[in-house]
């Protein structure tokens, strides 16, 4: 019968065991291996994720033995991962809260170090055909906040060609995004958002939707601007001067909706992580900040 | 003339058949039904073909062998999908390694060992439910169980385990069908010569259903390749620096890029990306999935022709 | 389930112990299998039983782990189950007034899934009937293959299509202000559900015995009359099960709706409004909710709710199918 022929079942079983052994051998012992590529894990802000990825890509040419892993998930997630000690660097587009720093200290025994690596301005985007030029904080609050009374474009005394219903279509971010929180804190002054805004889960999606929708207004990082959309100027109050989100206006704090971009580490960074952060703060790293559309730090500002 | 009706029918049967309005109506509905139904079937097929063609057309500028081998460049706005492709293969391999043997053994249990009682029905129900659980719930489970409770952290292992649990019902179902198709007579012949249950299974039932099992395993591969939500929260990353053409860039407790995640990220989070790039990624993903599915279908047809019983 | 010849318990014991057939008590001594083979087989049998039970273990594990992450929020005073299920206000990260209400999400899920099933069912049933009764064997093979390939397209690709292709079509032809809305999501979901409903419905129609068809033919029925008056009533439980499984798939779909429904927390007033579904909500916010925070736990609670709903739908489908089997 089949006694002396290798039965297909046995063959398959042997193949599985072999493959399992091979893959198990691929388990890396934790930590920065001394042989092979060292790894740095970064997690955090979705706003910053493109910038962080650009750094990782460029750094590969500078230090090929270091492999940087980048993932998004949001400022909150990155900070939480840092607190647990799961990643070495957390990127955040908001400041770390004092209770989060406490948690980190309690959990890992190390103090959290903050590095400011750039600045971002939140730009207000409208459709290219929209004649609006300037908007104030109060108008933004009335459009976006709960209980706000501006619901149609004619309330702002403009009419947009191509916008038939005249309804102001609000494009926003999902509720746990750092961008959303920043907008709520600084523009809406901690009032809640009105329900019914289209909450996109990517900074780029906001801009793309505004590009296609004549009635829309949205906010997103200034690095996501495209030629197909219009960026309007923002004034803090009516009759105050209005500024556009540019590098100079952000650095000089003239543009009112600007925030710092941070990297956090547990304790003082050592070894490969320290080299990486030093490189990020160097002119080479900061050049990428400009290329991606953000605002670089002034040289010589390593943070607290 | 007064002919008996029976005689006239014998000579010319058609003379008894009169087309009444009822018959005309019947025939009209029949024809209409046929057209409407074939139209519906066409409406089901047509969108698929149109959409796939649209994808390929839009992806054309980016598609090339280089696209497969190259890593993402210039902030992921150009370049290729190599790390994502390799990552997907890693995930498939590990998930398969875990779920294929388990699924086959489970199906053997359900078919050959279990008695037809409430326990058997519960296991059946569990398999069906496992197949129907939303992918995001699987992601939550992977997060709670593998990333946090089992302390695997965000890694290929966590992602692969989540995927394995998600796709094991596919293997179980096809293996059961394959085992079912082996005729009882084979088993009875074995018992008559004194074989135990396991001997019967190992020497007769399994070898005759291997092709069916393979079909199920291949199907599982295609499902694993396409899933996004379960890996998004357990082990897939936005970007990882990898060498072009590197076949083993990941360790098992690293995170990895994956084709499905890469498509999602390109479409929603990377600004300024060349228009054909996400389309090309979609084409690669769909191509991979369709290829594996076609292999499974062809295997099924081949084995049907091979069957001697 | 194989019907092994019924053996008395002692008989089974004897077989297991000596591993030889004991139909004749005065059997001639036969060569015994080596001890390691006997024990090996027992161990293997244990492994197989464990594997068989594993499916139950996995389902219970899913429920256990998501409930474990979600449970602590039940004690929080900012969370009440009634408001959770009944309020439309979803402000999990509010600085001033945290509110967890998923009613708008439930309604959004219902609208999108409902629309998807409404579009999918006629087309699927029509195609299933066509494939099963009206077309020749070669066309049948080809159509079945195409439908199976349609089922294999990954969810994220459908979402991508919904985001880029169909949303623009909807803006152009339906005059919507925003292309990502209930209609878009429903359309994409329908395209995803059609293959499942079609293949299961076709199986149900195939399961109706040929004798029914032959009897109808003998009475002079046309093919459509056979379908309408004989097959559909005979297969109706199977068809219902197919629809239920399609509904289950529609409710549970994540990536496709995440990218194509516009993601607005509101109760829609029309097909062209944007909505958010339960699944998309979890997927979008889970990434940004810090681990073990209250928001995180509420998202897990949403997961528990989803799990229960899909469990019930699948249970209903299984009971319907079981009902069919009992009839035969």
Descriptive tags:
heterotrimer; B: 309 residues; 72% helix; 2% strand; C: 328 residues; two-stranded antiparallel sheet
Describe this structure in words.
The complex is a heterotrimer of chains A (304), B (309) and C (328). Chain A contains ten helices and ten strands. Chain A has 304 residues and is of the alpha/beta class. Chain A is globular, with a radius of gyration of 24 Å. The termini of chain A are far apart. By secondary structure, chain B is mainly α. Chain B has twelve helices and three strands; from the N terminus they run αααββαααααααβαα. Chain B has a two-stranded antiparallel sheet with strand order 1-2. In chain B, strand 1 and strand 2 form a beta hairpin. With 328 residues, chain C is mainly alpha-helical. In chain C, strands 1-2 form a two-stranded antiparallel ribbon. In chain C, helix 2 packs across helix 13, helix 4 crosses helix 10 and helix 12 packs antiparallel against helix 13. The longest helix of chain C is centred in the first third of the chain and has 36 residues. The mean pLDDT of chain C is 82. Chains in contact: A-B, A-C, B-C. The interface between B and C is large, with 91 and 93 residues. Strand 2 of chain A pairs antiparallel with strand 3 of chain B, so a sheet runs across the interface.
Report the total helices of chain A.
10
For the termini of chain C, the CA-CA separation is 17 Å
Helix content of chain A: 25-40%
Topology of chain A as a string of helices (H) and strands (E): HEHEHEHEEHEHEHEEHEHH
Reported for the largest beta sheet of chain A, the result is: 10 strands, mixed
Which structural class is indicated by helix and strand composition of chain C?
Answer: mainly alpha
Radius of gyration of chain C: 27 Å
- The helix count of chain C comes to 13
The side-by-side strand order for the widest beta sheet of chain C comes to: 1-2
State the helicity of chain C in percent bands. over 70%
- Uncertain segments of chain C are none
Beta fraction of the residues of chain C? under 5%
Mean pLDDT of chain C: 82
Which quaternary structure do these chains form?
heterotrimer
Tell me the structural class of chain A.
Answer: alpha/beta
């Amino acid at each position: 019968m089949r006694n002396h022929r290798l039965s297909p079942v046995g063959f398959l079983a042997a193949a599985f065991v072999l493959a399992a052994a091979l893959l198990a051998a691929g388990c890396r012992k934790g930590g920065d291996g001394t042989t092979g590529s060292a790894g740095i894990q970064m997690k955090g802000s979705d706003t910053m994720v493109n910038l962080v990825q650009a750094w990782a890509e460029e750094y590969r040419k500078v230090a090929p033995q270091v492999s940087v892993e980048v993932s998004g998930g949001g400022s909150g997630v990155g900070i939480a991962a840092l607190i647990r000690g799961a990643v070495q660097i957390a990127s955040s587009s908001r400041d770390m809260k004092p209770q989060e720093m406490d948690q980190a200290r309690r959990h890992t025994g190390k103090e959290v170090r903050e590095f400011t690596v750039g600045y971002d301005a939140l730009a207000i985007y409208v459709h290219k055909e929209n004649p609006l030029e300037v908007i104030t904080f109060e108008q933004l609050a009335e459009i976006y906040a709960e209980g706000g009374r501006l619901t149609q474009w004619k309330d702002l005394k403009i009419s947009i060609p191509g916008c038939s219903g005249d309804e102001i279509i609000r494009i926003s971010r999902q509720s746990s995004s750092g961008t959303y929180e920043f907008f709520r804190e600084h523009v809406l002054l901690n009032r809640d958002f009105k329900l019914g805004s289209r909450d996109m889960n990517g900074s780029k999606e906001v801009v793309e939707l505004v590009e296609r929708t004549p009635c829309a207004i949205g906010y997103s990082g200034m690095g996501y601007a495209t030629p197909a959309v219009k960026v309007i100027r923002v004034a803090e109050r009516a009759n105050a001067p209005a500024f556009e989100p540019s590098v100079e206006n952000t650095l000089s704090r003239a543009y009112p909706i600007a925030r710092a971009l941070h990297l956090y580490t547990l304790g003082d960074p050592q070894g490969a992580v320290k080299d990486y952060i030093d490189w990020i703060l160097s002119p080479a790293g900061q050049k990428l900040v400009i290329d991606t559309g953000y605002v670089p730090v002034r040289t010589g500002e390593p943070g607290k | 003339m007064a002919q008996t009706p029976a005689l006239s029918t014998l000579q010319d049967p058609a003379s008894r058949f009169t087309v009444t309005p009822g018959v005309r109506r019947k025939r009209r509905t029949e024809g209409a039904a046929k057209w409407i139904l074939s139209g519906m079937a066409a409406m089901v097929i047509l969108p698929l073909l149109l959409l796939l063609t649209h994808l390929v057309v839009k992806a054309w500028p980016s598609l090339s062998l280089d696209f497969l081998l190259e890593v993402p460049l210039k902030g992921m706005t150009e370049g290729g999908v190599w790390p994502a492709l390799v990552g997907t293969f890693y995930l498939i391999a590990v998930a398969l390694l875990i779920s294929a043997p388990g699924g086959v053994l489970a199906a053997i249990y359900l078919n050959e060992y279990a008695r037809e009682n409430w326990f058997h029905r519960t296991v059946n129900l569990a398999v069906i439910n496992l197949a129907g659980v939303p992918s995001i719930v699987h992601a939550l489970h992977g997060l709670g169980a593998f990333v946090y409770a089992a302390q695997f952290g965000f890694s290929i292992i966590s992602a692969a385990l989540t995927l394995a649990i998600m796709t094991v019902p596919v293997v179980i179902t096809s293996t059961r069908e394959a085992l079912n198709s082996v005729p009882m007579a084979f088993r009875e012949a074995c018992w008559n010569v004194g074989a135990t249950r396991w001997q019967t299974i190992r020497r007769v039932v399994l070898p005759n259903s291997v092709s069916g099992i393979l079909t199920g395993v291949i199907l599982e591969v295609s499902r694993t390749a396409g899933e996004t939500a379960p890996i998004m929260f357990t082990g897939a990353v936005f970007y990882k620096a990898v060498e072009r053409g590197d076949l083993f860039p990941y360790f098992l407790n690293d995170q990895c890029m994956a084709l499905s995640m890469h498509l999602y990220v390109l479409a929603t989070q990377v600004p300024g990306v060349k228009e054909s790039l996400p389309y090309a990624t979609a084409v690669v993903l769909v191509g991979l999935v369709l290829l594996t599915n076609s292999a499974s279908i062809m295997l099924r047809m081949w084995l049907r022709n091979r069957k001697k019983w | 389930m194989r019907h092994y010849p019924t053996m008395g318990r002692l008989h089974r014991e004897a077989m297991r112990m000596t591993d030889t057939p004991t139909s004749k008590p005065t059997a001639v001594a036969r060569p015994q299998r080596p001890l390691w083979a006997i024990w090996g087989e027992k161990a293997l049998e244990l492994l197989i039983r464990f594997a068989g039970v594993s499916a139950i273990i996995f389902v219970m594990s899913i429920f256990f782990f998501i409930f474990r992450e979600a449970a602590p929020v039940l004690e929080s005073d900012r969370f009440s189950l009634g408001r959770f299920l009944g309020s439309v206000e979803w402000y999990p990260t509010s600085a001033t007034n945290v509110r967890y209400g998923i009613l708008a999400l439930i309604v959004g899920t219902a609208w999108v899934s409902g629309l998807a099933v409404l579009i999918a069912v006629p087309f699927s049933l029509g195609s299933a009937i066509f494939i099963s009764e009206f077309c020749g064997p070669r066309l049948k093979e080809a159509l079945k293959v195409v439908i199976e390939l349609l089922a294999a397209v990954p969810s994220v690709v459908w979402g991508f299509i919904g985001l880029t292709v169909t949303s623009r079509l909807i803006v152009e032809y339906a005059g919507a202000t925003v292309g990502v809305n209930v209609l878009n999501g429903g359309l994409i979901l329908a395209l995803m559900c059609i293959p499942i409903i079609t293949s299961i419905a076709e199986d149900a129609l195939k399961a109706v015995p040929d004798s029914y068809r032959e009897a109808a033919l003998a009475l002079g029925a046309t093919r459509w009359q056979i379908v309408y008056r004989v097959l559909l009533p005979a297969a109706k439980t199977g068809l219902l099960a197919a629809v239920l499984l399609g509904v289950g798939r529609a409710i549970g779909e994540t990536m496709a709706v995440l990218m194509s429904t516009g993601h607005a927390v509101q109760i829609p007033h029309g097909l062209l409004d944007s909505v958010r579904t339960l699944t998309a909500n979890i997927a979008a916010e889970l990434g940004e909710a810090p681990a073990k925070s209250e928001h995180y736990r509420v998202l897990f609670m949403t997961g528990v709710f989803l799990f229960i709903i899909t469990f019930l739908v699948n249970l209903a489908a299984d009971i319907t199918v079981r009902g069919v089997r009992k009839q035969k």
